[in-house]
Structures are given as structure tokens and as C-alpha cells.
Amino acid sequence: MASSVSAKPFLGSSAADSVSAFRSLPSDLSRPSLQFLIRTPASRKLQIKAAGSSFGTHFRVTTFGESHGGGVGCVVDGCPPRLPLLEADLQLDLDRRRPGQSRITTPRKETDTCRIYSGVSDGVTTGTPIMVLVPNTDQRGHDYSEMSKAYRPSHADATYDMKYGVRSVQGGGRSSARETIGRVAAGAIAKKILKEISGTEVLAYVSQVHNVELPQELVDHETLTLDQIESNIVRCPDPAYAEKMIAAIDAVRVRGDSVGGIVTCIVRNAPRGLGSPVFDKLEGLLAKAALSLPATKGFEFGSGFAGTYLTGSQHNDEFCVDENGRIRTRTNRSGGIQGGISNGEIINMRVAFKPTSTIGKKQHTVTREKQETDLIARGRHDPCVVPRAVPMVEAMAALVLVDQLMAHYAQCCLFPINPELQDPLSLSSARRGIEFAPSEEIANQL
Amino acid sequence: MASSVSAKPFLGSSAADSVSAFRSLPSDLSRPSLQFLIRTPASRKLQIKAAGSSFGTHFRVTTFGESHGGGVGCVVDGCPPRLPLLEADLQLDLDRRRPGQSRITTPRKETDTCRIYSGVSDGVTTGTPIMVLVPNTDQRGHDYSEMSKAYRPSHADATYDMKYGVRSVQGGGRSSARETIGRVAAGAIAKKILKEISGTEVLAYVSQVHNVELPQELVDHETLTLDQIESNIVRCPDPAYAEKMIAAIDAVRVRGDSVGGIVTCIVRNAPRGLGSPVFDKLEGLLAKAALSLPATKGFEFGSGFAGTYLTGSQHNDEFCVDENGRIRTRTNRSGGIQGGISNGEIINMRVAFKPTSTIGKKQHTVTREKQETDLIARGRHDPCVVPRAVPMVEAMAALVLVDQLMAHYAQCCLFPINPELQDPLSLSSARRGIEFAPSEEIANQL
Amino acid sequence: MASSVSAKPFLGSSAADSVSAFRSLPSDLSRPSLQFLIRTPASRKLQIKAAGSSFGTHFRVTTFGESHGGGVGCVVDGCPPRLPLLEADLQLDLDRRRPGQSRITTPRKETDTCRIYSGVSDGVTTGTPIMVLVPNTDQRGHDYSEMSKAYRPSHADATYDMKYGVRSVQGGGRSSARETIGRVAAGAIAKKILKEISGTEVLAYVSQVHNVELPQELVDHETLTLDQIESNIVRCPDPAYAEKMIAAIDAVRVRGDSVGGIVTCIVRNAPRGLGSPVFDKLEGLLAKAALSLPATKGFEFGSGFAGTYLTGSQHNDEFCVDENGRIRTRTNRSGGIQGGISNGEIINMRVAFKPTSTIGKKQHTVTREKQETDLIARGRHDPCVVPRAVPMVEAMAALVLVDQLMAHYAQCCLFPINPELQDPLSLSSARRGIEFAPSEEIANQL
Amino acid sequence: MASSVSAKPFLGSSAADSVSAFRSLPSDLSRPSLQFLIRTPASRKLQIKAAGSSFGTHFRVTTFGESHGGGVGCVVDGCPPRLPLLEADLQLDLDRRRPGQSRITTPRKETDTCRIYSGVSDGVTTGTPIMVLVPNTDQRGHDYSEMSKAYRPSHADATYDMKYGVRSVQGGGRSSARETIGRVAAGAIAKKILKEISGTEVLAYVSQVHNVELPQELVDHETLTLDQIESNIVRCPDPAYAEKMIAAIDAVRVRGDSVGGIVTCIVRNAPRGLGSPVFDKLEGLLAKAALSLPATKGFEFGSGFAGTYLTGSQHNDEFCVDENGRIRTRTNRSGGIQGGISNGEIINMRVAFKPTSTIGKKQHTVTREKQETDLIARGRHDPCVVPRAVPMVEAMAALVLVDQLMAHYAQCCLFPINPELQDPLSLSSARRGIEFAPSEEIANQL
Predict the structure, then answer these.
(1) CA–CA distances in Å: residue D215 to residues D208, D212, D218, D239, D265
(2) What GO cellular component term, any one, is given (chains A, B, C, D) (predicted)?
């Protein structure tokens, strides 16, 4: 059997014809459709998860918790002091991420109401670790009883066992999308800092679901708003394509299957100078951040993979001076990043999500006892993850940018900046008259 | 003019038609072809570079040096003791990276001969920082005199100025491909460790140059060898396609233009269990590593962006048991990684490189004094970076894997492993009878 | 000579004569005893705390929370999987740290009952972040109303304001001993790992309170037990000296004053080879860990400051071979650490704690409005911190050792060890027949 | 014999009588004075050293190299750009550290001339990794032939073998004082930054050699100068005590023995607000830094161990307002640090160094083959390390302060500071009219 295993090369993105070839692929396999009795799993049923749970150096986020258990959340260490912050600031994005928000997401019911336990006092951050906790409420462990016997295909079950040597059941533990609650909460803080410091906005939307691709020219990144994105349940800013995407999801949902798609994310008014020239290039940090989300398969920014078809003279972004005397690029194939460092143009990126691996169709697999078997997953799942992935991608991008903003401040703003070449970070903030006074709603509480 | 700047959306990978549209794009711009006298730059001519120069946690690499100056190299801290290591081990990969190795690379002449200054004694690593230095020999600073006046389009010139506030000339400092010497040297050590511990091999090759795409079925990842890759100057394992790729590079080389392409990288016999479930997913770490290389635009693994066109039932990799009683997957759309953790199948990834931004054609740009001007780069450059990027991609992948191997060992092998679910890392090594004795050539020196 | 040692207080900047004047100093000062109306502080009353809230690289602890607020606790990331762990394991040490445990500690009442929210399943660690939360229950914010107007001398009030620019009241926020709950909980896990892996024990006790010094010869570090330490409320293993220490505390307690003291900590059966030769010397890591505890003023190990009075021939520890054929030292002035690395002898260290800065006596100080004033602290406080510091010192030592154990494993046990020179870490564990089975109490739950 | 090994408790600082008792201690041991033939060591003679070779987070120093080999040095990553820097700036401190500088240091001859390979251009830092290399020139490996057979008492020989499993000879590899060259070079850069940013000065001096203790009142920390310290070869600012110290060193030097001592270090004009409240308290970071130097046994700051003899009312530093309207403390038992954070007063600390372990007297020890033997070290060594330790302690303190300065900047200066409570860091710099122009000597080069 080993040869049949190894004979299947992975699929690259560029080969259009290989997509169609792909569809006929599973039927090629001559798999023995063994049926057998699975012996009852032992009494030790463990959830499994792991290290690598912190992100960032200066604005450092640690998430904890799993799909089933007391709850999930995060600790943010290193948040600048004196930032107005309320639980409502986090809840907004948590509600965008929440399961059960529409018919195209998992029917699992969680209100995902967060509480800030530390680090905020009288509505203002104090510089301390901010601990945010969201209790779990709708746990149906029995849904997973069958899955605990067998490795779900393309899921984390098998690899967690290989790594930790304990058995992972009940929602996949840390591989659950529920872990991303801590990221979205921390990301909401990061987005607020970016907005205050430099008017920077991070916006993501769905640009592809299965075969439905939103043409680029239908979205103007200069004027795109959160309202446009949130105007429909699939989070595509174009209403007509949103309908097509919803239809594509409904089509697979009813037959227990799933589809993938692409989330596009932009950063508008990004400060210049973020990132660094070598290992911490801004694009590398964004790629790691994006591909740390569940179900991701690829990342590109600027011209991306399509840029490989161009020549240098076609691809280069020529410089010019705009009406405000600022150095700009005429085109933006660089995606707002040159040499690993932001240049002030719109940062854009695209993240590929595979179809959800948990599906309601019968699949062949093996049990932990290495017996071949069939599996039909009964847990609730999203037929397509991209609508709920939108706030997750925004959060990860914002976490990268705040962390790099602070790194830049530490190294390059210690001495007075060189005004001929550099823009002050705080200028835009000062320009906008922000004074970090308690907001009105806070003032009313005092 | 600001509106024309902002009106150019970035280019995504999937839109085939946008590729053709793209080509006519530069001519669309109504750019004032101002010609003017550029005032002499001030006497302070600085090279510029920056922090973020370390990679990895356990096997920690710090690179230093720039294109022009005393030399370049790296310090590797945390290397396991008792690994046989000679300068020749590093030189092999440095020669694959070296400029001037063929007519399709930059004619800059550097022998790139490395010397190990510390951390190795009597041909064996001692656990200490390994410092490797490669002196610079062929510096032609005067080639850059004109470029020092103006920002080269899509190069790091402008962003370095924005970040550091000092002037970057003479080869772009840390943005030079010369910085990657330290990575390739460290990567050679990492590859040797992987080979010893688990028979793991890291191999990369060129799978696309401009419009020439190597069909996947022409390469068998199970049997691919370094010799096949090194059999031609473009490093494509298929001789016929190699010729086409070389022709494509020659076509742009003669007219001073450049092209991009794709490097595919595989990891064979990767240990199971590397990576972790949340922020340090193996794919995220590999993406960051790959996109920290100069000129990269995108990363995908397994089914990648093409995987978004499939349904879950088409995409999932079913499990089976192979002839050795090991759990395997029948297909490998997961690219050897599930839930952020390696599953023992071949890890595969594809990295997109843009066309080299330094070209010999006239381009419009601005000077540091914010005057519009024209620029024709006279420095030596690669018409296509991908042939020399092959050892760089291998190096970065190997650095990630060794670092994760050590992390896994620290957390998950402290207590005796669970043999029902886990494979011992050292088994394969023991099985192969490796005893870490000094190799024959070392013994002769003693 | 001790008197000469202690008679020379390290007194800093303000003056030579203040040395002799030291004890009578406050009355010497001709301070204008201005009495004035303090203007009401603004309505923004913030608790303040900060970054730097994580400890360790592999076994990584992040604490959160402050004296007043929702609660305090920690997240432990990187804990090895498959370690039996119950809340009761943590509660034991939390009870030793708890306020209100005796008449010589602060009367603040907190049960400090912990709950594990994540990372443990069916009584076994799973490798995931372990979040431990202890809610605050006995908050008396009004006790601090007066202190909010003025900086308490030698407390963190002033420096927190200088750093964060927000006002710190209500128990001093993160400077509260309450923050150490998270450390003690994490330390309990670390101690359990050390015990399992190598039979390593970490024990601390009070060896000095004010002028009462426990003679070294009264404690045998080879046989010292936790029961001996816990046999009295001051945690001194010698009953007679314990009485003297308690009397010394009572003497200052009744007049609202405070005293300092010394905690001695030993590590028995420490694995050989922990620590590293340069910046991460084991003694440096232990010193940082100890001096991260509130109210600490000094750290020494082995011969310590007294060792400076010896010659090399008096000080050196000669090597010998013991009855088991193991290399040992005859004396232990090295304190179990040579060249930054543990040698298997008992590690010993002494940590100096200053007298508690919060006292019930009138002191001169200034308000935040820079007006001189008088202050009598009314908050509850410990007359002497050392009895409750004992489990804190143990916890910090254990956190260092586990982290270094994992670091050593990652770098130096990847390849088969060299049995002629090295001891296997897991040998002792295997020798003691530990199988990491669920303990009996857990088994009963299943 | 094991019991005799374990019966020797470590010696604490306070016990006066134990000091005298200590001197007769070695003679108490009934050691079998076995004499035997040592078999020739195997041909593999390795130097050994290790990980943990990086220090700092933002201003990150990595040292490399060992006593014998190509050379030693460091890489500094994260240095702020636009700092004037010449090799001469580093050489000044390297000369203070250099062996052979006087009769009371090791006669080993090394000029220790440094070269900057990267990161500085036209006399100004560029933000890139600064690599500094000092070649080794006076290697006498044969001096160590005898020592390679046996573990030198209280040296790193045995523990390095235990950790790495390879044999350490030839100067002890990374445990050599030669490793500190990289620290001193990096520290010189750090001192220059501190001076520029805030007029901060870091000065250390010898305050004790063996039994010769410099009375505190003889040094005024407010006015102490580098010239006073450098006015004699022992680096004690009081000429009379300097003579006594030199005599004490000469006394042991002639008979092949060694003595220890204490280095006092102060930081004047330290910015307020450096350090953080929990794990990264400034005192903890300084302690780790100091105890990472070879031969250290203890660290204290402010009142130190002597502070344990005071009551809270005696110990507290009362606040007042100085003539410039700034909040100050009347006394400085806090040593310039309260709650882990600098308060602007003089930071002071004392570091204990043991007598050099390498001595010219016969000692009993064991060989690597576990045979008891005698040893007389023949390598050149310092009879007392403290005179050369002075620039090392300064360097480590400066590295901590710069790193914390950058951390503070990243977190707490991102938003406009609160002028009522906080001082701007750059104020003092601006006030002193520093403009970061190229210095005159640089200007002349241009």
C-alpha cells in the first residue's frame, strides 16, 4: 500500500488543469473497504493541546483553553498603559467570530460573552497583563463519542497523538476554532491601538468561496468599510457575489460536505517603517500569523503567486511624489511592503482556507488501534470556515502590526528621528487631536 | 496624482486574465517625464540594515554583515554537541548559493569561502556558538554611485530610509542576497543534524520560471535526488524543462530585464510530531522562514491555493495502515502537516519569487530629495533569483525543522514516550547504527 | 566579622554621614513639618502593573491579576504531557503562601482556593496551556484611601507612576504579594516534575529574622524535611530558633513596625548538567528568579559574600570518587554549581528580604501633587515577609530548574549521551519505577 | 566517604565565626593521598562550551569564541541607528579588561585589538548587527597538558563534561575570562547610548580584596570619576586602600595562591521608570547579569544583606521634593530601585567574586577516568580577578539598562507621556543639545 500512498503528489496552485484532475483523484484509489468491530476505547479520554501558545514579543498574547472544558481566553502582556478599553470593544469582534451567527456557520450555540479579569481599571489599560475569559456553555461531548475511536481524516487527531502520546477527543482540544477566541479578543485591543496611534485600519473580507471568485475590481480598498463587509452573512463586500457565495455554501451544507475559500485582508494607513530587513520581514510575520489559523493552506501578498508571471520591468512599482509632498508608489504590486518593511501604501494579503475537514459523509480511516474503519462525523461544524475566519485574519494581522510598531519604537525612535527621511509615528495621532482622555461612556461611569 | 497611485489594486494569484492585463499596465500611467538636475548627495553615505537578525529558539541563528564591508556570516547558538562538522560541509551549499556560478546568475565574483572561528574542535561540535565568517572580496562600490541618488523601484532603498533615517547605498546593505550566506551555512548544519537523527532529507528545486511551469507529474518526490537537481544550472530536475527555463532567463537577461519563478521544497522522512497546535504551527513557521528570503511573494503547502476549489470530501486525506504497520495517509493534500504538526508524510511547499527588482532598464522614480528622476541600475544582478534561491529555501526549511525537533524533545520526550502512539526520534538513528564517531577524514587528522 | 559585614550597609547616594546616622536618621532630618490640605485626587483611580510578566523559555509561566480586581493566577505553557496533576497539588503550596495563616502574617483573609481551567484532563496534563485562577474575595479598597494621596516610602507607588503615568492605588496592583499566587501554583507543578524525573527536592526555610540568625550547623541539608520546616509558623526547622524569630516578629508587630530576614533554599538530587556556561549560568538564573520576588535585596549561593575572605586554596572544592563510583566534591563551597552548571551536589542559596515597607508608623513623604505630607499606612500588611516567602522562593527555584532541565534535554540529549561522562536524566526516574500511571485518587474518579 | 562529602554545608555571608573555622577546614578532611599513574588521555581533545550565549531582548548581544581558537567577539543586534561609533570607543574598555596590563593580572599577553566587521558605516551605526572580532594571539596550549588529565577543583571542567559529554581542555573553553571580551565590547556601545540619551554613567570599582575592605565613606558616588578609578592598577578610587589591596594580592601571588573580593557598581543619572514590576524587576535583571560573570558568588543592591538587620521604620526611604521640584528620596537604601523600577536615584550594587580557582598549589582531585590524583595547575592565571572584573561589571550593568530603556520606550512611550507623573527620556538629551551629528574625528574622515 505504501506505493499508493506515496504516489499522490501535492497540488500546486498554478496548474489550472490539475484542479479538474484532482476531482477524479479519490476514485482512483483501490482501497479495501474493510468493515470491522471497533473495540471500546480505554477509560482515559484526554483532550490534547500544546506549547507554542504565545504570540508576539512586545505585545505578547498567550491563549489558553480548549473546545470543551472551563473556558477559553487569553492573557495580553505588554499592552501600553492609558488606552481606553471596555469589554464591549472586544465583544464586537467576538460576535463576528461566534458560532451560530447564521445558517452558514456551525449551529453550536455559544454567546461567547467575555470578561476582563485584570489589566484594566476604570476603563483604561494600566500596562498589566490583561486576562480575558470566555466560559464554555454549550458542550456536547457525546457528539464526539464515535470520533474518539478513529482518526478523522485531515484533522489534528492523529498528529496530536503522535506528538503528545495522549488521546485527543471532544472537539479536538486546541485545534478547535474555539481557541481563536483569545486571538480575536487580543486582536480587538491591537486594532484599537493602531487606530489611536496612526489611524490604521485592518479590514478583511471573503474574496472566494469554492469556485465563486470575487473580481478584484469590484472592491475599492481605498474606501472599503466595515459596514460593507458586515452587510451580509458571508462577509463579501459585493452583495451580488455574496449571494453566489452563500449559495455555494448552502449547496454543500445540505449534503454534509464542505468548501474552502480565500480571505483577503488589507491594512490602510499603516505606519511606514514596520518590519525589519532579515528574519522578521513584515511579510514573513504576517504569513506566520495567518498560517497559524486553523485550515489555512497558503498566503500571498501584493502580486503574490501571479507576480511570478511578470518581468521586472512590468512588476516594479515606480516612485512618485503625491500632492502632499510624500513619496508614494504609482502601483502597489509590492503590497505595501518592500524589503520586509512597510512603505505606507495599503498592505494587502490573501489567505487560502481548505474545505473544513470535519464532514458528515462517510470516510475511510483507521482507529488508534490501527484498525481500518469507516467514520461519519456527527459533531456540529462549519460547512465553510471563511465567513468566521474574517475577524480572525484581521486579529492576527493587527497583532503583528502592533508588535512591530512597538519594536520599531524601541529601536528607531529612541534618538530623535531624522525628519528628512522619516515620519513621526505620533504625528498622525497628535494631528487628529487624540488626547487619550477617558471616553464619554467611561466618564459617565466615574 | 494621488488617485492614480491608489487606483492600482494588488494582483491576486487566481485571476488568470489579470496577468495579461497587467502587462500593459505601466504604459497606462501618464507620468510626467521630468528631467532635472539631481543635487549631489551629502557626504554621509551609510549602509543600512537592522534588528530581527536572529532565527529560531533552540537552534538559534544570528546573521551579520552586508553586501559591502568586511564580510558576512552567522553565529549558531545551541547546536547539539558531538556532531561531526567540517567547513567542507558548509561549503557544499555555499557553492550552490554563490554568485557567478553560471551565466544565468549575477556575474559578481565571490568565492564565498567560509571559515569556522569557534564552536568546533577536532572536527566535532562542542555545543558552543559556531561563528562562520565569509569575507567580501569583489566589491565595486562605484557601481552604485548613481543608485545612491534615487530610490530603486520595488527595492528596499526607500523603506530602509523610512525606518532608520540613514542613507542606504552600496548594494542595499542587509537586503542584499549576500546576507543569505549566513543562513545557508547554518542550514547546512541543520541538514546534517536532521540526516543523522532521523534520516530526514530537505530538497528544493525550481518548478517554475516566468511562464515555464514544470508539470508535477514529472518529479517523483519519493525518489528525487540532489544529483538530479544539480544536473543543470537552473536546478530543475527535469532536463527538458530545465532547458526551457534557461531559455526564458536568457531571453530577459540580454535585454536587462528579469523574471520570477517558484521554488518547490520537500522534506522526506520528517519525524512525526514536529510543530505545535496554535501559534507555532509547522506551516506557519515554514511560511515565515520562506518569506524572510528576499523577493518572495507567496507560500503554500500541500494543496495550497488550489485546494480552495475542492470540497471536503475531495480534499481529505484518508488514513490507512502500511505494510510496516504504520499509520499513513493515502493522499497527501495535507502536505505532511495536520493541525500544525508533521504526520510523517512528505512535507511539501512552494515559494513564489518575484522578478528581480534591480533591472538594467530605465525606470521612473524619485530621489531622496523628493525630486522625480529616471534611473538605470548599473549594478550586477541576477536576471532570475530562483536557481540560487534553491539552497536558501532548503536552509530555511531545515532551520525550522531542527528548531522544532529540539522543542519537541524538550517538552514531549522528557518523560518516557507512549509507544502505542509515538515513534521514538532516536530509533531511526540507532537503527542506522550511527555512533557519532569522528568520520574517517577527521580521524586521519588526529 | 559578621558584624563588620552587617555594619556596612550599602548606602547610596545621599551621603557619607548618613551611614553613622543610619538608625537615628529619620529624627535627624530637619524636614519642614508642613501640614496642608491635600487636594482631592482626580476621579481616575487606576491600578497599575506591567509587562515582563512571563518567566522561562520552555516551561513558560505568565502571571496576571492584582491585589484588587477579579482574581489572580497564571498560565503555564509548555508543560510536559502525561503528568498526573490535581488542583490539590497546587493548593498545598498555596496554603503555605496564604495570608491570615497565623498571627505573624497579614490578617487579610483569603482562602486562595485555586481552579484549573485548562490544560489538565482526567487528572493528567495534556501539554496545553494550564490556566489557574484564584478569585479575590476579601478586598477592602477603602483602607487605601489615604495612601492613594501620597507615595508610600520605599514602596512601588512612585516608580509605577513614573513608568506608566497612571495612578496606582488599592494594594499596589502588581507589586502586591498577591501576584505571587500564580508563581506558587506554577512552582508546585515544576516541583512535581522534578520529583518525578529525578527525585529532585526543592526546600526552603527561614534562616534569619532581624537579628536572630540560625546557626548553619543546626540544619542538616542532607536530611532536612518539609515537615521540619512546616512544624512552626515562622518556617524555621529548629524549634528553639523558631521561637526566637517569632518573638522578634511579635516585638515589631505590636508597634506597627516590620523586620526583614533571610530565606535559605536548597535543591537536593539536582540533575547534573543544568545551566549553561555564559549568560544563562544557573546561579544567574536563580538570582534573577529570587530577586524578582517582592522585597528582596540580595542573593548569594555556596560560600557567597563570605567566600571573598578566603584564598583559592581554602575555597576550592576538591574532587573525589564516592562509594558508588560517582565523581563528587568533598566540600561544597561551590553551592552545587561550577562554571554555571550543576554538578549534582546540593544547590544552596540565600535570599535577603528587607523589612516590609508598609508600616503603621507615621512617615514623611510627598503626594503626587509634589506636596510634602505625613503618612500612616492603614492597610493590612505582614510584619515580616519571610515566613510566607518560603514557598515563593521554592517556586522560583523550581521554575528555573525545570526550564533548564528542558533546555538541557533539547540541546544535549538529542543524540545518545556519552555514558562515560554523562548521567542519563531518565535513569533515576526509571530506577524508581515511576510509570506515570494515574494516581489512585484519579483512578477512583474514572 | 560520601558522608564526609555531604557533611560540609555551604557558608553564608553573615556567620563571622564560620569564616575563621573555614580556614582550617581542608585539613580536617582525612583524604587518602593516593598517588598513581594516570593513563594518557585519548586523542580526542575537545574544547567545550554551550548555548545560552545571547543576552537581552531588544539590544541583543551574542558572544562567541573561546580561550584558544580563532578568536572571540560578539554580535549586537538591535542597536539604534545613527549612533556615532568607532573601534576606539570599544578599545578603551577592552584595554581595561586586557590580560597582562599589570603585575597583578595574568601574564598572558594579548593586545585584544578589536575590529568591527559590520553594522557601522562612516562612523555611525546603521541599525544592523554589529560584529566585533578579537583574534587570539598568545595561545600556549601545552600549558594545559597536565590539566587535561584531571578536573581542576572548583572549575568548570567537570560540569562541562557532565553536560556535553565531550572533553574540555585548553583554557576551559567558554568558561575562560576571554569570553567576556564580547561583553565588554558590547557594553561599551551600551554605555555610549546611555550617555547620549540621558547622561547616564555606569562606573564600577574594587571595594574589597580579601580582608581589605574600602570604607564606604571614602567614596562619594555623586562625584566619583573614571579617572579616580583608573588611577591605580587595582581600580580602587582611594589611593591608600589601593596600596593595601595591591599588597594583599602580591602576598598570595608569590605563593601561587589567589584571593577574592568585591566590585561595587553605580549608575548615575539613570532614567526613571526602567524595569518592570514582576519577573523582569530591574534588580533581578542586574543580578542575573552580574552572576553570569565568571567566579561570582553573590549580588546585593541598596542596603543588601545588611538591610535585613533594620526595621521598616529605619529602612524606608522617605520622599521629598528637591530644589528643582523633582520628587527624590532623602536616603537611598532602595539602591535606586523600588518595586523593580528605577526611581532616578543612584543605582548601586555589590558583586562578590570568589578567589580564582586555578592556583599554582598542589590539590587533590580526580581524573576523567575516575582515578584520584594530584594536580598543580601551570596555566597563567590572575591571582585576583576583581581588577579586571571592573569593566565587565560595568558592561553587564549597561547592557541591562539599555535593554530596559528600549523596552520602556516600546511599551510606555508609544502614546504621549503623562507630564504630571513622567519625565520624558529625550528631554535630558535635548537639554544637553546633543544632535547626533558625526563627531569631529568622523567628520575629518569624510
Answers:
(1) 9, 9, 6, 13, 15
(2) cytosol
Instruction: Provide, as residue numbers in chain D, all residues whose Cβ is less than 8 Å from the Cβ of A127.
Output: 411-412
Helix and strand numbers (H, E) in chain D are 13, 18
- The ipTM is 0.84
CB C330 within 8 A of CB D4: yes
- Per-residue pLDDT reduced to its tens digit, D374-392: 988 766 688 999 999 999 9
Q: Is residue A30 part of a domain?
A: no
D77 to chain B: which residues are within 8 Å by CB? 51-54, 62, 64
Could you list the residue range(s) of the whole structural domain that residue B74 is in? 54-412
Q: Which residues pair with B249 in a beta bridge?
A: none
The one-letter amino acid code at C407 reads A
Q: Do D407 and A409 touch (CB under 8 A)?
A: no
- Say yes or no for a CB contact (<8 Å) between D406 and A405: no
Q: Which of B204, B258, B233 is nearest to B381 (CA)?
A: B258
Note whether residue D84 is domain-resident.
yes
Nearest residue, CB atoms, B312 vs list A285, A317, A356: A356
Residue C4 within any structural domain of the chain: no
In a domain, D14, yes or no: no
CA distance to partner chain A, nearest, from residue B223 (Å)? 10
Q: What is the CATH number of the domain that holds C397?
A: 3.60.150.10
From B361's Cα to the closest Cα of chain D, the distance in A is 30
The DSSP H or E segment spanning C146 is: none
Task: Answer with the residue of higher pLDDT: B312 or B446.
Answer: B312
pLDDT digits (tens, 9 = 90+) for B379-409: 668 899 999 999 999 999 999 999 999 999 8
Q: Which residues of D touch B174 (CB under 8 A)?
A: 128
Question: Sheet harboring C71-77: ordered strands across?
Answer: C54-55, C60-64, C71-77, C130-135, C115-118
Residue B298 bridge partners (DSSP): A300, B352
User: Which cell is A442 given?
Assistant: 467611561
Cell digits for C202? 526543592
**Sheet containing B347-353: which strands, arranged edge to edge?**
A212-213, A201-209, A261-268, A347-353, A296-301, B296-301, B347-353, B261-268, B201-209, B212-213
Rounded Cα–Cα distance for residues C174 and C151 (Å): 16
- Per the structure, how many domains does chain A have? 1
pLDDT band at C155 (very low <50, low <70, confident <90, very high): confident
String of DSSP letters for C317-364: --EEE-TTS-EEESS-TTTTEETTEE-SSPEEEEEEEPPPS--SS-EE
CA angle in degrees (0–180, nearest 5) for A302-A305-A311: 85
Cα torsion C265, C270, C272, C276: sign:
negative
Are the beta carbons of D153 and D365 closer than 8 angstroms? yes
Tell me the count of B-D CB pairs closer than 8 A.
182
Question: Taking CB atoms and an 8 Å cutoff, what residues of chain D touch B53?
Answer: 75, 77, 128-129
User: B411 and C415 in contact by Cβ < 8 A?
Assistant: no
Nearest to C16 among D20, D220, D280 (CB): D220
**Residue A89, C-alpha cell as written in the block:** 470593544
Report field, pTM of the whole predicted structure over 0.90: no
Q: Which three cell numbers stand for residue B249?
A: 532567463
Report helix, strand or coil for C17.
helix
Using a CB-CB distance cutoff of 8 angstroms, which residues of chain C are in contact with residue A122?
44-46
- Chains in contact with C, where contact means 3 or more Cβ–Cβ distances below 8 Å, are A, B, D
